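Troubleshooting entry. Yesterday's outputs looked truncated, so today I'm pasting the complete records for two proteins to confirm everything comes through intact. If either block looks cut off, that's the bug. Protein one:
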Amino acid sequence: MLHLVDASFFVFRAYYSVSPEMTDADGRPVNALYGFARFMGDLLERAKPSHVAVAFDESLSSSYRNDIYPAYKANREPAPEDLKQQFGLCRQLCRLMGVAEYADGIYEADDIIGAIATRMRAEGHASVLVTRDKDLAQLVREGDEYWDFAGDRRFGYHQIEEQFGVRPERMADYLALTGDAVDNIPGVPGVGPKTAAALLRVFNSLDHLYDNLGEVASLPIRGAAKLPARLREHREAAYFARRLTLIACDMPLAFTPGDLVRRAPDVPALESFYERARFGPMLGRQAQRLAKALAE
């Protein structure tokens, strides 16, 4: 099965959970690299994926969404310099592990994952989305799985609504209505998660909702009488927000299904890589196990 990994969450998580005193032979921090290496090794051992790709974000401020809306993600602190350096090492690690990795200066990791999942679905491949980002739930379809690896929780297509409030196909519209504080996206004032979820249980999409505003006032939703006027007033804002919340599955990304086939790790190169990082022998032994398992 195809596993698509949202790398940024796991790199950031490692950076803030592993001691910054962990340094390589040259004294450079490698705490994020270590945590990410542990995660990737454990993922490959547990899941044994036949196809896998890891998507990285190149920058928090260079995507096409920033061109549309300069305040997009402006509420986030820039990544520390020592973390930025480790992202490059994490990408190198993936290649040594025999795993395809992708990043783009214009599109985000979510878009990369969306493009791969969509095109591979047409080839008959279901996807496991390894992430904790609710935005990626919009990609899940029948046969796919959302895997919160860190929380050890898995959700299939029919469980997404129970977990996140709406069906996967409506997640981008849901976030357009509620806004997304994490990404600094404003929504429709006064429309919170419960109201947005209730609306999208009745209406199939943002378009369907706005085409039938006259029906909203009679719905059994708190404050329904005032909702049509509020939605009408902020219509442009809702549609603008959806341009930001919708994953760009049609982004140009050069890959073939064969590129995603998991390859054997380069064990000697990985052992040398780990030795320079002063990680000790444990990860090297894991690399040997991964290579042996693929050869069997």
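Protein two, checking that the full record survives here as well:
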Amino acid sequence: MLKDTKANKIFLIILVVILALSFSLYKGWEKQGIEQRRDQQIDFQGGNSLQVSTISNDIIIEVDESQKQASISLGKHDNEELKVSKRGSLVTVSVSPIKRWFLRFFSYTASPLVIILPSESLERLEVTSTSGDITLMHPLKTNTTKVSGVSGEVDFLTLVAAEHLQLRTVSGDISGKEVSANGEIDISSTSGTVEIQQVSGPKTALKTVSSKIEGEIHLPERGSVEAKTTSGAIELNLRSSENLKVNASTVSGSIEFNDDRQTGNRASLQTGEGINLVKLSSVSGEIDLLY
């Protein structure tokens, strides 16, 4: 038994040394990959479509109209596979981790994916990431936009859609300066905050479960907005909109119109002709409306 115990100790010491050396080498490879970038160029014209997907990589999309092609940049370590293709007018960019035996023992830092477009005008924009943040650093004009994440944040400057616009996360925050669309606007998060300075569209839906919804809403004629949360707060400014018909309801939260506390768990009001519909609902969260 004594010999077996010594042998086990020696084995464990050797194993720890091997793992430590492997970890040092791996971190060295990872650092080199972060510091070095691999760039690809692909033809991209105004009116083309862009589809981007990653698992854990942050996604950053910029616009440089002095460029003649789209530029795609990713860290140069060997743990990630970058695929870039174009079929017709659709450019597809994807990053996926390469399964290696050492990834079972060590995690790695995913490189940010940086895409620079030569035009701010797109037919369709679709961006998805599981745990990476999504940042749209330049105003973008599309026919349709769909951005979705799980735990990463979605940040943007200005998004304009000729048709529909959808922003969704599970636990990541959604924040930006301005969104507008001629069709439906659908913005939702389960536990992330929805905070947008200005939202403009004929039909807007803002939803969370446990986080706050905040923003200024502009409704065109015969437009509608619905804001719904379970335990989060709703803070909306509709002072730029007219002819409102507002219905607000809560189970155990409070309702305020222009800082005036309403009695009961339901409240309504109408301005002008009341052709623009506003529906606000919560279970236990506060509702605060300015009009």
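Both blocks look complete. Sanity check on protein two: The CA atoms of residues 164 and 183 lie 5 Å apart.
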